[in-house]
Amino acid sequence: MPQFVNDLARWFSTVPPWVGLVLAAVGFAVALASQRLVAQARAREEEAHQEAEEARHIKNDFVAMVSHELRTPLTSIAGFAETLASSWRQLEVSEVDEFLGYIRKQSQYLGDLVEDVLVIPRLEAGRLRFHPEMFDLGQLVHDVAAMLFPTGGGREGAVSLPMGVRMHADPKRVQQVVRNLLENARKYGGDQVLVEGFAHGEQYVLVVSDNGPGVPDGSANQIFEHFEQLSKGDSRSSSGIGLGLPIARRLARAMGGDVWYERRFPTGSRFCFSMPVKALVTDGELQVASTAPLPTRPEQVRSQKYEV
Fold this sequence. Notes:
Helix Hairpins, alpha+beta, single chain, two-stranded antiparallel sheet
């Protein structure tokens, strides 16, 4: 028998009995700790698996929703384009203009949809660049309203904003926020939509209000989550993939403002969009600052009604 074994046996023969009990207790504690660590590792693995599965479902749902939304305008564009290509000589000029109008409208919708799909991952990755410049906010809102509310509709929309309210921000992104808020009101907002604006401290606030059913109690935060709609599935009455309001809020906050919901009395919704009226541009990034005040002339108000 090796010498070290003899020495070890001799040492154990001199150890008091309580030491063995201590060693046994330590061994039991180590075993329990090992089991706990293994259980925690398995729980983390299961959680990671569930998250991966949820992400897969979200991706599949997203692809399905985008495919559904792309299919309708693409079919319309292809149909009208085919008709024009084969029969434009036999069509009346008014019919050609009508078909081209449909193609233009559907193409604009496709472009807006693609831009909405791309903007959130850019924001989350911190790669969305802003290009601020001075622009007339009232003119921008009137342009968006005229695009979304063409003549021939059966509902009433109105824009009442002071002329000469000049903002220093990225007009493309401000337009994207305004477009999504107005599209939300057009889809869900009843037969009357009103856009107003007012200065509030160092913020300018746009309010898009409507007389629709409003947002159900408990859903005010849910509507700002990705892919959420109050009506879902193939039976939903309006188009969209639930990105409009989340994009509006994320873009507004990235520009130093915010978007939020308020209940309108006695019925309807108010969606508010705030923007800083003092801003500074540094390396292409928009930052709130204490310089560059923007002039307003609230005494000059342009009020325009549109058919929704």
